[in-house]
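## retry 2 of 3
previous attempt timed out at serialization; input unchanged, resubmitting
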Amino acid sequence: MKFQIPNNLTRRPEQILRKAGYFYIFDRISQQGSFVKKLRHQHYPRFHLYVTENDAEIIFDLHLDQSASRYKGQNAHNADYKSEEVRTELTRIYYLINEFIIK
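## retry succeeded, writing output
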């Protein structure tokens, strides 16, 4: 699930997401950074958030990783993109970030 906001925050998205319990990860294979929030002590399940910025807007794209890929070299995994859990978490992030939008 996604939402977008104008690119006029008083803080960097990384700083705000840290307050929401997310930490930055970098995938050496895809060469892409993203943010995760673990739901248990294990690696999975976890919320996985991609943030894309340009001059006009910031796009937040969230899904829930249920497990890692099953086969070596495969990037696919078991994930929820539109579940109620994802919707609730994305709403929580939206309201937190909304506090830092210049109005």
